[in-house]
Amino acid sequence: MNTERTAKVVASGVAHLRAHSPSEAPAAVKAEKVRLKRKMRMEEALQCMGLNCMAQIEANVPGVLAQHTESLHQMRVGLRRLRALLGMFDDSAPLPAELREGLDWLSGELGETRDWDVLADTTLAGMQGINTEPLRAAAAERARNLHRDMLPAMHSPRFTELMQQLDGWLHGCGWRPDGPLPKDHLLAQRAGDGMVPLLRKAQRRLRKRIAALDENDAPARHRVRIAAKKARYAAEFFADLLPAKKQQRYVKRLSALQDRLGHLNDLAVAGKLLPVLENSGHAHDAAFARGWVAGASSAQSHGLRDALDSIARLKPVRR
Fold first, then answer.
1. What is the distance between the terminal CA atoms of the chain, rounded to a whole angstrom?
2. Do 41 and 191 contact (CB within 8 A), yes or no?
3. CA angle, 115 as apex, 209 and 24 as ends, to 5°?
4. Boundaries of each CHAD domain copy (predicted)?
5. What pLDDT shows up at residue 1?
6. Among candidates 52, 90, 99, 82, which has minimal Cα distance to 187?
7. 208 contacts 223 by C-beta, under 8 angstroms
8. What are the pLDDT digits (tens) for 113-149?
């Protein structure tokens, strides 16, 4: 990927919009499996994993330009995977500050739009005992406006330059000092050896956040969810170097926790967004919906501690 390539992807998305109706948006692209070899050095593994994440981001540009909700979701997944990977290697391959700021900017550009998509398409759709159609229509309109407002970011030189700079940093081993890596450097180790402390660190972080959690604290629950996601991503990145059945069981357990915490987070986000609708002509319905959200959140938090403690007892996958 380079600047010219990214610009072509954006141009292709624009051409698709001109030639097709909005209902024919390009299909959303999920992450491809990372392919690692057992004799690969950790530096090569980092390049493979990073470029895999970037490919997912880039592949969803046409769908995002077409204002396709699932393409936006998958672009955000690719971005989260990339940031989790870079965080995992922060000690051995620190990202330059300007690239870190660029990723923060892109994440911020995408985040609010996705929140309104989820409210309109998922959270409100799951409510019972209330006609949510007026609220869903209002939330969907806000989401459509945000999708439209986000388009300049995709067309901007900043986005193209960010992709080009990340690509150059990964391909050019931008983390290297002058000359070869020291023999004891993490990135000089074989990937099968170097992954071990990274997988352990991810599980330790998750365990600590679970131990400190008040399960009724929504922001703290969200931090646990992020830690679970990072531990899962780590196990998925190194899947080719891990025992398949153990890796799959570990990922499945973490995914189930993520889903539960993710639903609770969607409810917490809905509690913040509904007052916006309440103040824009939907006072009665939005107030009722806020009450439903509070009750659902309380009910679904019940028994969460047992599930969290079970996850805390998991051990990272070993070879």
1. 33
2. yes
3. 130
4. 39-319
5. 47
6. 90
7. no
8. 999 999 999 999 999 888 899 999 999 999 999 999 9
